[in-house]
Structures are given as C-alpha cells and as structure tokens.
Design a protein that fits this description.
Layout: E1 2-4, E2 10-16, H1 25-42, E3 48-53, H2 56-64, H3 66-78, E4 81-87, H4 111-127, E5 134-139, H5 150-174, E6 177-182, H6 193-203, E7 208-213, H7 214-219, H8 224-233, E8 238-243, E9 245-249, H9 255-262, E10 273-276, E11 282-285, H10 288-291, E12 303-309, E13 319-321, H11 323-334, E14 343-346, H12 363-383, E15 387-388
Parallel strand pairs: 2-3, 2-14, 3-4, 4-5, 5-6, 6-7, 7-8, 8-14
Antiparallel strand pairs: 1-2, 1-15, 9-12, 9-13, 10-11, 10-12
Helix pairs in contact: 1-2, 1-12, 2-3, 2-4, 4-5
Length: 390
C-alpha cells in the first residue's frame, strides 16, 4: 500500500510474511497464493505491499538462479503484490515448534550473517517495482547479549563495514539502493535505540541504520519521541519501522493479572519481559515464564512482554496492548513536515502463538485478521494527513 506524504514523499505500508513460515522458494510462492493475495482482496486493493521473510535456503535459491528470481517477481506482479522491504532477522527455522534463542543465530560476528544479508540485498534489487529504486532489509541487533565478547564486537563491526561497501557497489551496479537496519530488541546487544547509537555511528554509513520495531520500543519502556529525536541528532537513519504492539499488564501483582499473563506464556517464541523499578531502573527477564516465577521482577509497576499482539484487537482486561506507543511513534515517524522513514511494516508473527481461544482457525480467519491490522494502520496514516494512493 502506498501513501503520499504532504511533502510529496511516497510512504510504503506492508505486512511481514514471517507470519507464514516457509523455508524454501516453493513455500514462498505458496504464501503468495494462499495468504498474501487473499489479504489484498479483502482490502479491496489492486496492489498490496508485503515484507518478505526469506529463509536462508529460499534466499540462496533466488540469489544463485536468475530464472528463479524472475519467476518470483512475475508471481508478485501476477498476484497484485509488491516488495520494497525484506525481513532479514530470522535466518532459518522460524516456523519450528520451538524458536526461542535460535532466532539470534548466526549473529553479526559470524561470517554467514554477512553473506546472508548481502544475498538478501542482491535479491531485493531484483524484486523492487520498476518505478522504485530504494529498498530496505531489517536484521538482528548484532547478537544476543550473553554470548557477546569484545572480539565478537570487533568482528561484527568489520562485517558491517564490509556490508556498507557491498551495498555501495550494488547501488553502482544496479542503480538501486538497499539500506539495512539493525532492529533493537530486548535481551540483545542492541536492546534499545540508544544502544544502537555507538555501533552505528562507528560504522558511519548512510546505508546502515535502524529498524524501529514499536513492540520492542514499548517493551523497553522507551519514549518514542526521545528515541527518534536521539537517532535524528546522531544522523542514524531509520531504515524502516515495524508497526507492532506488546503485551501490557498495568497491575502485575494481582493474581488475576498473573493468570491472564500465564495464558501468553507459550513454548515457541521468546517473550522478554520488562518493568521499570521505583528508582527508574529497567528490570527484565528473558522470558515471560521467568517473570511469573517467584520474585524475578518487581511487581509494583507495569510489566510489558515482547509478545506481538494483533494491532486491532487488544487482549481482554485485565491486560491490554502498547498500541498507544505505536501511535506516538508513528506520529513522529511520518506525522511531521518530512517522514523519518518511508518503509512501514505490520509485523504480528505470533497469531498461532496466541492463547488457543484467540488463534485464527484456518487461513480465512488469519487473512481477516491481517487485513484488519492493515486497515487500522491505513487509518492511522490517513489521520496523520497522508493520502492513500491507488
């Protein structure tokens, strides 16, 4: 979906296909048919943006076989779909029964992360619509904190410098510019947007920036305006933003709230949980179950858990979502005189991890839910003065 900002800039809205796990190119093509095109039809659109997640095998197939890449591009056109952004965070296995810490491997100290991201950038230049020359790729925020060392930090810095050189060369070769954004996430080396400033200013390249995920922003209790102002002051580009909402519990000490939270403690994904203590210090656990056990977290202030809940359907009381944080962030991202980013992506990948009563039953209900999320995002954008384009 395309929107015209009052300054004339085109802003793109997509939804991320990591909600439809697929490891192979055949699986990706099936996603377009079974999920993405039905969502487009529900929205009554002739064209719908999707943020493709390409696992390593699918990315490799597209990067090494020009005919396969042309075939995917043709399938996108045939189904009324377009791609300006890729989700390069998960490497493989995102549809496994248990993902948890696996999603952070390989990290940016591992040469395979550089090779995979480079392949994604090359693939994206072949998928961009004919009238566009700029794409984006989101990637993990260096690595998980507990495995990080000075040597690994040095290796990651070198890898990002090499990536910048490759992106420059790719732009010279194809005439198309791809930018890559580290996506701050709780528990990682780069947990907050503030944590991103040092490594990214050290790289100091306009094609390497940040992907602002509004669920992660909220989980870490970051103020959107403060965070985005700091990025702007440091001249760190917002490559893209993922529009998502976290799980919010206002009164975690109450038994009813604990019981409601426990329903979201599931075995597939990691649900980092955070709270701000009485002294203003951020406290956290790696997973929601750990927070619910004993006194791992202070319970006198609200808790937020890294669980991407549907944008249009906040959990029932006594829980809610951090949709207000998303709205504040979006106001700063695209509501000013000039947009801070041109690529927006709804990313609720946890539909099938919701408590059983809330999960969609079948493809049709899932498509209905994704379409409803996109409709909400569309309304937020038009309320900010952007005009929806055909």
């Amino acid at each position: 979906m395309r929107f015209r900002h009052p300054d004339g800039t085109t802003v793109h809205l997509a939804y991320c296909t990591n909600v439809h796990p697929a490891e192979t190119l055949d699986g990706v093509l099936a996603q377009l048919r079974d999920h993405c095109e039905p969502v487009r039809r529900r929205l009554g659109r002739d064209r719908l943006g999707i943020g493709l997640w390409l696992a390593k095998d699918a990315a490799h197939a597209l990067d090494t076989d020009p005919a396969a890449l042309r075939g995917l591009r043709a399938a996108l056109d045939r189904r009324g779909l377009e791609v300006v952004t890729l989700n390069g965070f998960p490497y493989e296995g995102f549809g496994a029964e248990q993902v948890k810490y696996q999603v952070y491997r390989p990290d940016w100290a591992d040469p395979e992360r550089l090779e995979h991201t480079t392949a994604l950038a090359r693939v994206l230049t072949g998928l961009l619509p004919d009238d566009l020359t700029e794409g984006s790729v989101s990637t993990l925020p260096l690595g998980w904190r507990t495995t990080w060392t000075d040597d690994r930090a040095d290796a990651a810095h070198a890898a990002l410098l090499t990536l910048a050189e490759r992106l420059d060369a790719l732009a010279d070769l194809t005439g198309r510019s791809v930018r890559v954004g580290l996506e701050p996430e709780p528990g990682c080396v780069v947990e907050t947007t503030g944590d991103a400033l040092a490594p990214l200013t050290a790289v100091g390249h306009p094609r390497i920036g940040v992907c602002v995920d509004t669920c992660h922003l909220a989980t870490s209790f970051e103020d959107p305006h403060t965070a985005l102002d700091a990025l702007a002051a440091a001249r760190v580009p917002v490559v893209k933003s993922q529009l998502s909402a976290a799980l919010h519990a206002e009164h975690p000490r109450l038994p009813a709230v604990r019981e409601a939270l426990a329903a979201f403690d599931e075995p597939r994904f990691l649900h980092q949980t955070r709270t701000v203590g009485d002294t203003g210090r951020l406290h956290g656990t790696d997973d929601l179950g750990q927070a619910l056990t004993g006194d791992a977290l202070p319970d006198t202030s609200p808790w937020r858990a890294h669980f991407h809940v549907p944008l249009h359907a906040a959990p029932a009381a006594p829980l809610t979502s951090t949709l207000p944080v998303l709205k504040d962030a979006l106001t700063r991202l695209v509501g000013g005189p000039h947009p801070l980013t041109r690529h927006l992506e709804v990313e609720t990948y946890t539909w099938q991890a919701l408590p059983p009563a809330l999960r969609p039953r079948g493809r049709a209900q899932l498509a209905d839910g994704i379409a409803a999320e996109l409709a909400l995002a569309r309304d937020l954008l038009t309320d900010l003065g952007l005009k929806e384009l055909p």
